[in-house]
Design goal:
Extracellular Endonuclease, Chain A, 12 strands, globular, 6 helices, single chain, eight-stranded antiparallel sheet
Length: 262
């Protein structure tokens, strides 16, 4: 009997020691709480309407299978994330961490839409491994070329400017996913009519939200500034649930941009 108990214990220990810990972990939304340290990237995760939240070394995201893309991607951005590195651009691949499998890149082929990064590759240049993680289809949404290379690119560049100016920021971004959207490919990847980006300074003193129609525009970026409350209404997402209520309410109701240098 002692030998049997010993062998059973030995087998359990072997299983635990050999169990692989993937670079991408799945997080149950109910486990996300303010128990993380103040500097943790998990402090400011939004709620998930799908309860399918994943994290890798580059960003965290909530995947919506019915739209074949992330409803949001969240990450911290600092100057150290953006060195002047010239990496070879990889091809997009499916994200194997997503239980239901992220969209195949072939859905975008000959669709007339780019594989638009949600977390931009230029925001993750601290290593090639981090850069490569942005080329997963869980981090892509269909975007028209003139939008992707135009106003959306201008907003991404300005976001990197603010990351340096304010010594680090938190970024949450995605497309507005709603019923009735146009789709592309065999897997019916939804094409959002609007994209949003929300930025919070690391000291929690300033927040700004953008809601941008999915079309070419030469308008100044500040024309698309809206209260984060408005973005929450159209997405059904609570973006900063772990902020103290008084701070969250004050920042999310603000639609001003005088504290942000455009």
């Amino acid at each position: 009997m002692k030998n049997i108990k010993f062998l059973l214990l030995f087998a359990i220990l072997q299983f635990l020691s050999c169990k692989q810990v993937n670079s991408v972990d799945i997080f149950d939304e109910s486990q996300q709480s303010s128990t993380y340290s103040q500097d943790s990237k998990f402090d400011y995760l939004p709620t998930s309407t799908s309860n399918n939240v994943y994290s890798n070394d580059a960003y965290t995201f909530s995947y919506k299978e019915s739209f074949e893309q992330a409803e949001w991607v969240a990450y911290e951005l600092t100057k150290s994330d953006m060195p002047k590195a010239d990496y070879k651009r990889p091809y997009f691949n499916q994200d194997k961490s997503v239980n239901t499998k992220s969209a195949d890149w072939r859905n975008f082929k000959n669709s007339g839409y780019n594989k638009g990064h949600l977390c931009p590759a230029a925001d993750r240049k601290s290593s090639y491994e981090m850069y490569e993680l942005t080329f997963l289809t869980s981090n892509a949404s269909p975007q028209l070329y003139d939008f992707n290379a135009g106003i959306w690119n201008r907003l991404e560049q300005k976001t990197r400017y603010w990351a340096e100016r304010y010594d680090g920021i938190y970024v949450i971004t995605g497309g507005v996913l709603e019923d009735g959207l146009k789709t592309i490919g065999k897997e019916e990847v939804a094409v959002p009519d609007y994209f949003y980006k929300i930025i919070l300074t690391r000291d929690r003193s300033n927040m700004i939200g953008f809601l941008v129609p999915h079309k070419e525009s030469n308008k100044p970026l500040y024309n698309f500034v809206v209260p984060v409350d408005d973005i929450e209404k159209v997405t059904g997402i609570d973006f900063f649930k772990n902020l103290p209520d008084d701070v969250e309410n004050r920042l999310e109701a603000n639609n001003g941009y005088k504290n942000w240098k455009f």
